[in-house]
Amino acid sequence: MEDGKVASPPGAEGGEEEDDFGYRLFPDRKKEPQSFLVRSLFTFHNRCQVMLRMTLETNPYAQLLIAAMKQSGCTVFNDRHFSCENCDGCVSGGFDSATSQIVLCQNNIRHQSHMNRVVAHELIHAFDHCRAHVDWFKNVKHLACSEIRAANLSGDCTLMNEIARFKFGLKGHHQTCVRDRAIRSILAVRKVSRETAEKAVDEVFDACFNDLEPFGRIPHSKTDAKRAYKDFLNRDRYTANL
Ligand SMILES: [Zn+2]
């Protein structure tokens, strides 16, 4: 597997800077019984679960996505749909469509802000899986579309965007970041050429970049996400009262 190539070394994160292009849709999950080493990593597991709970209780990106999934008939249960596991290489997380589970790589997620972004990113894949008949394996355009949406809406590009604005005032940086991340994510989970990944992303880019469901806007910050969550709840209330 090419895990090591696409993500930062686990020890490299200096807080916010860590590069987590290694989001994988279908991580290679270990099927063997837990070894002594794995059991001794209990503290990783514990820390992962505490951070996950914090994300689910307080992060507006996650709260909105979970509310939207519930509305679409896909209720998310914390114990059933999230799994803290050790992952090979430097992968941060993944969505396992076979079990509808979000895998969180407890050995590589060390900060709450990182957990927030991984959970939001993977929940967007779960949301797409719930609302659409996504052909994750055979249709690379479907995968490309979900990766574009995940990069656009999860906050993955927010920090880089801020840095770019501060340093260069680059216009269109957000789009460039989303395109780049989507391509890298595809290359991390599929054995396709860079040209194939780029072609798939470019073909669906406009349609999928402009599909802002369930946020209704690009949430550039937690404040944006909070507003989107409020609007979503009100939209819900409004239709309920009709
Ligand atoms: Zn992804």
UniProtKB/TrEMBL annotation:
Q: Which UniProt keywords apply?
A: Hydrolase, Metal-binding, Metalloprotease, Protease
Superkingdom of origin: Eukaryota
Using the UniProt annotation, give all residue ranges assigned to the region (Disordered): 1-21
Q: Which GO terms describe its cellular component?
A: cell junction; cytosol; mitochondrion; plasma membrane
| Molecular functions (GO terms) | metal ion binding; metalloendopeptidase activity
Instruction: Tell me the Gene Ontology biological-process terms attached to this UniProt entry.
Output: mitochondrial protein processing; mitochondrial proton-transporting ATP synthase complex assembly
Q: Name the EC number(s).
A: 3.4.24.-
Membrane-spanning intervals of the chain:
none
Q: Which family does it belong to?
A: Belongs to the peptidase M76 family.
Q: What name has this protein been given in UniProt? A: Mitochondrial inner membrane protease ATP23
Organism in which the protein naturally occurs: Coturnix japonica
| Highest classification ranks of the organism | Eukaryota, Metazoa, Chordata, Craniata, Vertebrata
